[in-house]
Amino acid sequence: MRSEPVSPAALLTPVRLQVAPGHSPDPRPPVRIFVGTEPVQHRAERVFFHALRKVRNPARVYEVYRMLRLPGFAQGRWRTGFTNFRFAIPDLAGRHGRALYNDVDEIYLGDPAELFDRPMGEAGYLALTPSDTAVMLLDCARMAQVWTLERAQRLGKKTLLELAAEKPGLWAPLPAQWHARDTEYRPGFTTCLHYTALNLQPWHPTPEQYSYHPHPLGELWRDLEREADAAGYEIFSAAAPSPAYGDAAARLAVPPRWR
Known about the structure:
Largest sheet: 7 strands, mixed
Strand content: 15-25%
Strand order of the largest sheet: 1-3-2-4-7-6-8
Radius of gyration: 19 Å
């Protein structure tokens, strides 16, 4: 008997940053952030969350969806383990509301709620350029007409971008402070920094592939990691376990069967 394929949406349980104690809840919708990640980026992922916690609005709810090892995608020519996940966001978000997308090798230095609430006019997505989609603000209802889960699983990135380009006005420019790449960083101006040079990433995720060299902004990232270490911060905890914790605990609770 064949089992039904698992829907990627069923695997996405958000990490929720709740309203902090002592703050009156902000009535605006939760800030939804989808992060493209992969196992080798576990250090970058932890620092991404820590940086977000530092700059978030403590009165507002944030929902962060870790797009990790989603099934059903043809990954043959992907540069990373999450390249096409971003194009499935409109469907994964229920084809309604807004969503932010970030690559995992980025850090927020300003509150992403300011970008999330930004007027979009008639645009379906904001990005630095039509093809630079490492940071995006999406109108999920509009983009679901072009980027669907089925297409993201089957088509290449170039084709998906071409489909969006066929609709005039679907793209609009993202303000530069929300996607500074490496040395584009400007203190006091940049609100999202992207460590794009793979051989300079300060956390050295794939030493078997690259000979790493110092990044000019490496200390900024390492300071955040040291802060997370000092605070004992982890994305998941006993009070807020990962989505896989329940199944793992249940398996461990079953006594072994000895032959």
